[in-house]
Amino acid sequence: MANKQLLSLARRSHKPPSSFTVVRSSSSAAEEFIKPPPPTAMIYDRIAHSLKSKLQKLEKPDIRFLKYGSPHPTQSSHTHILSLPETKITTLPNGLRVATESTSNSRTATVGLWIDAGSRFESDETNGTAHFLERMIFKGTEKRRSEEEIENMGGHLNGYTCREETAYYAKVMGNGVLKAVDILADMLQNSKLEEGCISRERDAILREVQAGEHTEEAVFDHLHSTAFQYSPLGRSIHGAVANIKTISTEHLHHYIHTHYTTPRMVLAASGAVKHDQIVEKANKLFTKLSSDSTTAKEPATFTGSEVRIINDYVPLAKFAIAFEATSSTDPDSIALMVMREMLGSWNKNAGGGKHMGSELAQRVSINGIAESMMAFSTNYKDTGLFGVYAVAKPDCLGDLSFAIMSAITKLAYRVSEDDVIRARNQLKSSLMLHTDGTSPVAEDIGRQLLTYGRRIPIAELFARIDAVDPSTIKRVANRYFYDRDIAISAIGPIKELPDYNWFRRRTYWNRY
Amino acid sequence: MSSILQSLLDPKKSWLASLHMKTLTNRLRNYGLRYDDLYDPYYDLDIKEALNRLPREIVDARNQRLKRAIDLSMKHEYLPEDLQKMQTPFRSYLQDMLALVKREREEREALGALPLYQRTIP
């Protein structure tokens, strides 16, 4: 009987809303001509009814959407992409290594020189020479102006100086590769370093140094200078202002003579290049560089320390916390890369928002304690840094520091298989996605040859990444994070940032 | 086992349950409220999230009903008889959305992620 009433009600509710329907309520039906309105009379009831039908559609999701969207990370096999073009490497008699990876379907190419020289190899008095020299080399040689020639071909000429490597590379069309090699060789060997150019460049660099005080790089420069204090890695790349003012032609020539030597250089090319042609050209051209393979290197020492620069007039506080990590040739560096993916990065524009995989990113985003957060892991020849860099408003620094330190120390205690698989997949895909295009590939070739001495095949790299499992993560975290000194550098309104002892205490937990 | 419990609680099958429903209907009708209006967003954050997801008209109607009931209670009055006959206390707008929010929270917890909102003790 109740079913019949419900059915009649359902049938009648399709009628236009102006007619009232008789609904049996619990009170007597005798004197009714005021009845409760049908479910289509008021707009909120109509909307609630349509909402109910939409919510019921969610009960049966379309299988097509669930096929690839599983929230459980799975290990999958990548054998079909592992056979990428082979990198051909030739070592010339003077020590120069020529490495190319030719992809037959590209029409452009990148060719460049990656040199194992940087700000690390200077001394305190000559700090800043490497960067200065890189700027001067672009200014021209005795015979021609290099930048103009490359631009005439329709290419780009670029270069950068890091602490441990310097690079000069040109992106050109496929038919301009040999000419680009010519220009690069000329730039390095016959550079015209004249006084007028030097003084103009000096002013430009001084202005850049002043403007760079407030960028993100400033935090990392301070971090290196405090973590590696009294040691060559601690020197900044620009150099001290006093040094910049006194650098002269002899310094630059001396630097070229001692550090730009052929055993420490790699000529890398990728794209529409042919290995034999480039080897032949390099043999003919790179004749004036010395073949001295000694690389005078002082060891880098890590000191647990902090540097804080309070400035209450900027709106955001930026700080970085770093542990001493390992060199790039150590097998644990792969585990550290996976751990870097486990900590992840987040900023307010991130598409994942509050639903990202890393616990630190979730904590930061759900509670709104940072503007952006990034984990970093850098490796040098004998040491490295692993840590987290964050930008935050001044009032939530305590919570943010707690979240960061608990996430890092947790890697030594509780690591779940799901997190590790997700981090491994993310690492593999980010490594492959970053080498898309001729320039990143050439840079990858140059860097790998300088750091590892060979180009690691993708299959081996993936195998090494897959060998990292939760027990490896715990062992590596115990080796590098458990009760170890840290380096902190902070800039901005950092009054609420906890002190060094607070951070140092949270590098271990009193539990098993 | 659960079907015995369901038949005990079903107003169409059990006399006690239908008596309870009639009493509730009368009391809600006095103040012009629906059963779903009694769910308190400060008590359970899931209700707050469900109300955030509901369309504006439904939430506005809920708030208007609550204001009317607060006003009547302050004046120690009941709703006028003709309006009382038009009340529909058990027309639901919240239960489906609340069930969805609770399901999503369970799923998130099962995956091991941090909860999106947590009750803070004031």
UniProtKB/TrEMBL annotation, chain A:
It comes from Hibiscus trionum (Flower of an hour). This is Uncharacterized protein. Residues 18-28 have a biased composition (Low complexity). Residues 247-427 form the Peptidase M16 C-terminal domain. GO terms for cellular component: mitochondrion. Residues 97-239 form the Peptidase M16 N-terminal domain. It is found in: Mitochondrion. It holds the Pfam family Peptidase_M16_C. Keywords: Hydrolase, Metal-binding, Metalloprotease, Mitochondrion, Protease, Zinc.
From TrEMBL, chain B:
Its main location: mitochondrion. It is a peripheral membrane protein. Keywords: Electron transport, Membrane, Mitochondrion, Mitochondrion inner membrane, Respiratory chain, Transport. Coiled coil: none annotated. One of its GO terms (biological process) is mitochondrial electron transport, ubiquinol to cytochrome c. It is found in: Mitochondrion inner membrane. GO terms for cellular component: mitochondrial inner membrane; respiratory chain complex III. Component of the ubiquinol-cytochrome c oxidoreductase (cytochrome b-c1 complex, complex III, CIII), a multisubunit enzyme composed of 10 subunits. The complex is composed of 3 respiratory subunits cytochrome b (MT-CYB), cytochrome c1 (CYC1-1 or CYC1-2) and Rieske protein (UCR1-1 or UCR1-2), 2 core protein subunits MPPalpha1 (or MPPalpha2) and MPPB, and 5 low-molecular weight protein subunits QCR7-1 (or QCR7-2), UCRQ-1 (or UCRQ-2), QCR9, UCRY and probably QCR6-1 (or QCR6-2). Component of the ubiquinol-cytochrome c oxidoreductase, a multisubunit transmembrane complex that is part of the mitochondrial electron transport chain which drives oxidative phosphorylation. This is Cytochrome b-c1 complex subunit 7. It comes from Hibiscus trionum (Flower of an hour).
